[in-house]
Design brief:
In the N-terminal section; belongs to the FAD-binding oxidoreductase type 6 family. Helices cover 14% and strands 32% of the residues. By secondary structure, it is an alpha+beta fold. The strands form eight sheets. Strands 1, 2, 12, 13, 14, 15, 16, 17 and 19 form a nine-stranded mixed β-sheet that branches. Strands 23-22-25-20-21-24 form a six-stranded antiparallel β-sheet, with helices on one face. A six-stranded parallel β-sheet has the order 29-28-27-26-30-31, with helices on both faces.
Length: 646
């Protein structure tokens, strides 16, 4: 990544008015030229802010050589000339600071009074104006407390990934917008240089209700966003919510868009208390029973072939859907008039109950993934069932954890890292991800921000294809050398997710380095392949002479078989080519399921008689296998069979 730099410079000539973009600006002790040099006041001298009079944010100013030209909805333009100002200074109060401010002109007051529907006056921070904020020696004009405020573009992107709605920089009104840095990199900057000016960064910018006002309409968000989302992960010990950082210029000089930022000093990032009180373990059950409808609220393009879909229930709240970090969500869609089922691991976290999120990689020929990428839009809905699966944080001790993933296998790791960060777990985490190229790195900025907030999380990547000369992390497929560099490797609980070849290689490498097999936890993606399948003999029946259990026979010709769903009192004339779950559903039965991939065990049934071809059994314990249990989603009847709930 190239050096952080200035992407945009914004000034707000009247306090709480809309911003203006500048290509460059002079900096003095009061901040940027033209920034918040005007303020509106009531007749009693108390300033007026957009927090209470939201229409102010719709006033657009244009800077001229002699003053300003103002426009506002339903109003004729107002021309303001410095030469027409009165020479009357009057005390104006901004928060707890009293300022001797220059009254502009009575005719201007009438324009603002008509627009806001109340008596008000316009004041200017003139040559004889002075204001010192208590407990600080620096001067400010009509800004709240500090001359300037900055936010990085990556920090806003991080917020938008978490929030059910998209927000713009205009919601937060920064003076400087930063690019080419990781999310919340500004949290650790103590002194920086931009252009000709050095700045101190004394404290984070605490946010108020004004951030919930839509800068295009002047209407407050009905659900208090983005403030509520920020509270979930950016709340300080005193209860304030921080987003952005305040700046104090140490000298005068010029800055411009494109200027690089030199970090001269650093300090520790602020301590966020959200989740300091450890949450109770999330129960694996859910308040939502059966199927429920989810509506798409937002779509995020993560990479060229990966999208995240943010979903909320059509009825009730997402908090009604309890799940554990790492579990998956079974969904159903109607594609070309046909109901199609799929399962995606949740990349959201149960610690952030405002929404559910699935992150979907486009798979060539994949019916569901391509439909979601090409046809599924904001406002569309899908059917879902309760999240499930045994691959989750509460399945193991998490004092020392390695999250090891490849490709779209990163999704449960995102959920787990969010949960551990939000709960402020005092644990040791290593996040290691393999991708093809830098362009294929999913949520890289978000992972960096989460690791920063966690405080004890190391992040590493390896690229399996060629990398740019600036790439400084690993290259190539996962090796024992890479894993051996992880501190306390064999003391960690290792969670692995990715393609089968990656999982198998990772397991071999980890075990060869001394990791106990009990510390290896894995999740697989996609439906099981119909190769190398295991034929289970009829219970109590010995294997055929010369064959061992699990050895597949040559494929048989398609034929009809009888399937007795004994516990459901249903006889089905089926076939030897489709899983039992599919055939039962086609016959009108409501059978339990979740992942439909042989992983979670939700569709467990007992084989009372007959033989099946078993495609996967990860969701079963060894004891359950011995007792004759099978997974209906992953077993194809080879003969007439009888199954029960057991």
């Amino acid at each position: 990544m190239s050096a952080a730099s200035i992407q945009a410079i914004q000034v707000y000539p009247i306090k709480s008015s809309a911003g203006i973009s500048l290509s460059s600006s002079w900096i003095d002790e009061f901040g940027l030229s033209f920034d918040r040099r005007f303020v509106l006041s009531r007749e009693n001298g108390q300033f007026i802010t957009g927090r209470t009079d939201t229409k102010i944010c719709l006033i657009q100013a244009n800077i001229t050589a002699s003053g300003l030209i103002l426009t506002a909805p339903g109003m004729e333009p107002l021309v303001i000339r410095y030469q027409d100002f009165s020479q009357n200074y009057r005390q104006v109060t901004v928060w707890k600071s009293d300022i001797s401010a220059l009254h502009c002109r009575h005719e201007y007051d009438l324009w603002f009074s008509r627009y806001l529907g109340k008596e008000c006056q316009l004041y200017y921070f003139g040559e004889d104006s002075r204001r010192t904020v208590k407990r600080r020696k620096e001067q400010v004009a009509f800004a709240d407390g500090y001359p300037l405020m900055m936010i990085s573009r990556a920090s806003l992107d991080d917020l938008n990934r978490r929030s059910p709605d998209d927000f713009t920089m205009a919601h937060f009104r920064p003076n400087l917008i930063i690019e080419n840095c990781e999310a919340f990199a500004e949290d650790t900057w103590s002194r920086i240089r931009i252009g000709e000016v050095e700045f101190d960064l004394p404290k984070p910018c605490t946010r108020c209700i004004f951030t919930t006002v839509d800068p295009k309409t002047g209407i407050k968000h009905p659900k208090m966003e983005p403030l509520n989302t920020l509270k979930s992960y950016r709340q300080l010990e005193n209860g304030d919510v921080a987003f952005g950082y305040n700046l104090v210029p140490l000298n005068r000089g010029q800055i411009a868009v494109g200027d690089e930022i030199s970090v001269l000093k650093r300090h520790d990032a602020p301590v966020f208390t959200t989740g300091k009180v450890k949450s109770a373990p999330v129960k694996p059950t859910t308040a939502k029973q059966g199927s429920f409808t989810l509506v798409c609220q937002k779509i995020v393009q993560e990479t060229h072939d990966v999208k995240s879909f943010i979903l909320t229930p059509a009825q009730g709240s997402a908090s009604d859907i309890a799940y554990q970090a790492g579990q998956h969500l079974p969904i159903s869609l109607t594609i070309a008039g046909e109901k199609v089922n799929a399962t995606y691991t949740l990349s959201s976290s149960p610690t952030r109950s405002g929404h559910l999120m699935i992150t979907v990689k486009r798979v060539p020929g994949g019916r569901v993934s391509n439909y979601l990428h090409d046809e599924f839009n904001i406002g569309d809905s899908l059917s879902a069932r309760a999240p499930g699966g045994k691959f989750h944080l509460n399945s193991a001790d998490t004092s020392k954890v390695l999250l090891l993933s490849a490709g779209s296998g990163i999704t449960p790791m995102l959920s787990m890292l969010k949960a551990m960060t939000d709960q402020a777990l005092d644990n040791d985490v290593v996040f290691f991800h393999s991708a093809r190229s830098e362009q294929d790195l999913i949520a890289k900025d978000e992972v960096a921000a989460l690791a920063l907030h966690h405080g004890n999380c190391r992040v590493s990547y390896t690229l399996t294809r060629s990398a740019t000369p600036k790439w400084t992390d690993y290259q190539g497929h996962l090796t024992s050398h890479m894993l051996a560099k992880i501190p306390d490797l064999i003391q960690r609980q290792v969670f692995v997710c990715g393609p089968a070849s990656f999982r198998e290689s990772a397991k071999q490498l980890l075990l060869s380095l001394g990791l106990p097999e009990s510390a290896y936890h894995f999740e697989s993606f996609g439906a099981p392949k119909k190769t190398g399948q295991e034929k289970l003999p009829e219970p109590g029946k010995q294997p055929e002479p010369g064959k061992q259990p699990g050895q597949a026979k040559q494929p048989k010709m398609a034929k009809k078989v009888s399937i007795l769903f004994d516990s459901w009192d249903k006889q089905v004339e089926g076939n030897n080519s489709e899983p039992l779950l599919d055939q039962g559903e086609a016959a009108g039965l409501i059978l339990p399921y979740s992942c439909r991939g042989g992983m979670c065990g939700s569709c467990k049934v007992k084989l009372e008689s007959g033989e099946v071809e078993q495609l996967a059994s990860d969701g079963l314990s060894d004891l359950e296998k011995e007792q004759g249990y099978i997974l209906a989603c992953s077993c194809i009847p080879a003969t007439d069979v009888v199954i029960s709930q057991g």
